[in-house]
Write a structure and sequence with these properties.
Blueprint lengths: L3 H9 L1 H5 L5 H21 L2 H12 L6 H11 L3 H23 L3 H30 L2
Helix pairs in contact: 1-3, 3-4, 3-7, 4-6, 5-7, 6-7
Length: 136
């Protein structure tokens, strides 16, 4: 029963999983589902599942090339900061996967909190501007 949401999310988001470069909105939706599954796994003490979700977050596909160009043009010199947030998320998620596999629950929870802070930081800094730029 505890895996119904992650399985349903994976099924519904299968097109994103298969896309080499999904649109940003779909990518963020998928990452949100993965973050939810990561948190659930940590709450349940399932470090193997937490590691799998963290690794999937760390290895998420890039945004569509055309959208990357729009974002870069919109952000200009701020693009460096945008990429910095993305790198922080990748590195934190990768580290989380490693400690979870090592059975270090306390450190995994600390890194999960840091990962969420990375997501929120990027969203706070860029979500409005990027959403407007990518709006139809």
């Amino acid at each position: 029963m505890k895996w119904i949401f992650p399985l349903l999310a994976a099924f519904l988001l299968a097109p994103v999983l298969l896309a080499a470069e999904p649109p940003l909105k779909e990518l963020m939706s998928h990452l949100g589902a993965q973050m939810y599954s990561l948190d659930e796994a940590l709450v349940l003490g399932d470090l193997k599942a937490a590691a799998a979700q963290a690794e999937a977050i760390a290895e998420h596909p890039p945004i569509q090339k055309a959208q990357r160009a729009v974002i870069a043009k919109t952000l200009g010199p701020q693009m460096k900061d945008f990429k910095g947030w993305d790198l922080k998320v990748h590195k934190t998620a990768s580290a989380l996967a490693q400690v979870a596999l090592a059975g270090e629950a306390t450190e995994a929870r600390r890194l999960a909190s840091q990962l969420a802070e990375g997501c929120r930081g990027c969203h706070s800094a860029f979500r409005e501007q990027v959403s407007k730029a990518l709006a139809p």
